[in-house]
Amino acid sequence: MISFRIRSLSSFFSKSTIFILLWLFLLVFPKGGIKAGGIPITWGYLLLGGVSLFLLFRCRFNISRPPFLALLFLIPFQLIAIYTFASNGIENFGFAASFFVGFIFLPTVFLFILFDYIENIDIDQLTKLIKTGILFVSTYGIILFTIKLTTGKLIEIPFLTINYHDMGEIENKCNERGFIFKLISTYNNGNLYGISLLIFFPLYCHLEKYTWKKSLVISSLLLTFSRTVWIGLIFSGFISAFFLSKNQKTKFLKLIIFPILIISVLLIFSICVGFDLNFLLDRSLGGRSEQFQVLKEATFFSGKPFIGILEIVYLGILEQFGVLGLVFYIAAIFSPIVLCFLFYSQMSQLRMSALCGLLTYLFVSLSDGALLFIPVLAFFWFLAALSLSRNFCFKP
After folding, report:
1. Is the pLDDT of residue 140 over 50?
2. How many C-beta atoms lie closer than 10 Å to residue 243's C-beta?
């Protein structure tokens, strides 16, 4: 095994300070920032880029095997994407920039540049920050939802809870659900908030021991009024019960009771707010059924210019990069999970809960993965790096 060492950051910021700042502007206030040429530039991504650039000049470039292999699995997809961009051109440069950030910059940062730090992170500090951050955005989201419901107004704090150039535009970000406005918290969009939190949800539920806090987070996810988030919540509870419950009787009860409980709550909840079964069982899949037309037009290589990725991520990858691109994407995005099972035969519940979060995201990508929107892939690659680290086995 080859080690990867980062020199001292004491002349710049302490590791703890950097981690807290990243936590603040990636998890708690992910949308704070400005736009340049229509492309969002957030404080969290700027900080991540600055720290990474600083470390590039203070590192010995060795890397341990699990993250190195994960990066190798990414290369075929990266190459076919670059080839497609060069051959077919780009129509949406904003989404193209997001693609390069999500599939080149972020995995390089988390699986290479910052991996040694992640591998030696203070687990106590990490778990406290994750619990505090998720509880905060959930609570803030419910408060904001209540204010919007009762007064019709939204609280916008420019440069912090909202991008400065998005002021007054939040109501145009697909957040209306009939007469109800989705819970958006500091993420500015209900689907994006729900998808982002689902990545951390199994880990959060494993770490948090207070039922009322977990119930509050679940309530915030329900108030997104996103069917993608709702089915993701059910899936998350199901696989968490399957992989994390040690007692077979308890596992069996959780596998049956949790889905039934959530589905019952959703039915009652939907009826109370005026939705019927047509909302829950929408044949058009929220307007996404037309995306399956991609299957009839699929080719080995795509001949289309890049305009973005469809909500149904796998169909979007197929449309933009062809059959070969989809195969390479699946190999790349599933590689952290596969590598964890290969390298860690005896996995702690902490590591397994993180893997459940990755699996949950890959599942909701069948409906809406928000692939190119901040901060989804930052969360995914961070949790992937955390899962692949040797020391992520402490049981709090």
Report:
1. yes
2. 16
pLDDT digits (tens, 9 = 90+) for 145-179: 999 989 988 899 999 999 998 888 887 777 777 66
Q: What is the pLDDT of residue 4?
A: 44
pLDDT at res. 45:
96
Which residue did the predictor score with more confidence, 257 or 384?
384
Quote the mean pLDDT of the chain: 87
Secondary structure in 3-state letters for the chain: CCCCEECCCCCCCCHHHHHHHHHHHHHHCCCCEEEECCEEEEHHHHHHHHHHHHHHCCEECCCCHHHHHHHHHHHHHHHHHHHHHHHHCECCHHHHHHHHHHHHHHHHHHHHHCHHHHHCCCHHHHHHHHHHHHHHHHHHHHHHHHHHHHHCCCCCCECCCEEHHHCCCHHHCCCEECCEECCCCCCCCHHHHHHHHHHHHHHHHHHCCCHHHHHHHHHHHHCCCCHHHHHHHHHHHHHHHHHHCCCHHHHHHHHHHHHHHHHHHHHHHHHHCCCCHHHHCCCCCCCCHHHHHHHHHCCCCCCCCECCCCCCHHHHHHHHHHHHHHHHHHHHHHHHHHHHHHHCCCCCHHHHHHHHHHHHHHHHCCCCCCCCCCCHHHHHHHHHHHHHCCCCCCCC
How confident is the model over 23-65, as pLDDT tens digits?
999 999 999 999 988 889 999 999 999 988 888 877 666 678 9
Q: Which residue has the tokens 């596998």?
A: 255
Q: For 38, phi and psi rounded to 5 degrees?
A: 85, -5
Is pTM beyond 0.85 here? yes
Structure-block tokens of residue 215: 């119930």
Amino acid identity, residue 292? F
Question: How far apart are the C-alpha atoms of 387 and 200, rounded to whole Å?
Answer: 12
